[in-house]
Amino acid sequence: MPAVVLGVTGCIGAYKACEVLRELQRHEVDVQVVMTAAATRFVSPMTFEALSRHPVFHDQFALGENGEIRHVGLADDAELLLVAPATANIIGKFAQGIADDALSTLYLATRAPVLLAPAMNVNMYEHPAVQANLGVLRARGVEVVEPGSGYLACGWLGRGRLAEPAEVVAAALSLLRRRHDLEGQTVLVTAGPTIEDIDPVRFLSNRSSGRMGYRLAEAARDRGARVILVSGPTRLAPPWGVELVPVRSVEEMRRAVLAHVERASVVIAAAAVSDYRPAARASAKLKKSGEGLLLELVRAPDILEELGRDKGQRLLVGFAAETEDLLVNARAKLERKNLDLVVANDVSGEDTGFEVDTNAGHILRRDGTRAEVPPVSKRAMADRLLDEVVALRAAVPARPSPVTTRA
Known about the structure:
Blueprint: E1 3-8, H1 16-26, E2 30-35, H2 45-52, H3 70-77, E3 80-86, H4 88-96, H5 102-109, E4 114-118, H6 122-126, H7 128-139, E5 143-144, E6 148-151, E7 157-161, H8 165-178, E8 186-191, E9 196-197, E10 203-204, H9 211-222, E11 226-231, E12 243-246, H10 250-260, E13 266-269, E14 276-278, E15 297-299, H11 303-309, E16 315-322, H12 326-336, E17 341-346, E18 358-365, E19 370-377, H13 378-393
Parallel strand pairs: 1-2, 1-3, 3-4, 4-5, 8-11, 8-13, 11-12, 13-16, 16-17
Antiparallel strand pairs: 6-7, 9-10, 14-15, 17-18, 18-19
Helix pairs in contact: 1-2, 1-8, 3-5, 4-7, 9-13
């Protein structure tokens, strides 16, 4: 029976943790509860003890049976640490490594995957400090069930309501099921934009933030894969436990990919690579004149097409960012570049394009079938795509990957 530690923190959404606990039990999950002092002001520990049939841990100095240090014992036994609701306070403690209560101490002691379900006032959730702390935790491999939008307990309307218990439980069960299903694989991910210099001041690029590629790298890492992330310039924190190879131009990305691709059993090309580049780079800043400026562009190398010509047993996954004829163009790209999967997404949408944390689209397969993915977080999209990769890898003999030191 899987063992989950349910952390409950102090906000009005704490009562929903009872529903989360019961739903996990219905899926034959053993749940032990850890509460902060503030949480006990909203729901009695006796309620969770009656539901879980385990003592509630809320005093970090209390010893367990036979003198066991409880936060260490729970940390060792847990297969998942789920915090629902997760307040801004506990998110900040986790991000900064503060261990001053039972839950924050257990977090530092566990090596189990961690899932947070934030709940707070909309202004608190959107505060730069909270978002920065969530970014730090995501980079370390912590997963987040995004809060819902609607009427909040404080009377405000907006984002910050604890996700529905069914959604929280579905995310928890998904984590419990998929641990290590890419173990033994090396996954190479490309991410971000590329930059082509026009002169020492100006350049050509695109709006890619790199978020999709970084979420893919994190998701593959969390499934047990060795991950090589070849990234163009972004403002994102490098994911923990991933080998990062920073690049700038198309040619730099091409050289980096070709240098590492022999180690990879799966390549996921999520980078927005320039199709064209200046025919020549001016050595000095181009000066403005009364006339228009004619800039000559030439085709840039097509990295994905080059990989498709010599794919071997390697799985090759691409992205088709389109603004029209989405499925037609994506299917043509899959065939032309000899891909195993292609993610087709309409980047003209407000919630599915660049510089946002959500995505949607279709995953097209070589056999002509496809799976539609509704609007979800980019991390959820990454996991949905990796589910497809895992299914394909099951039908392909695994290639041995040399052992490398993680960054």
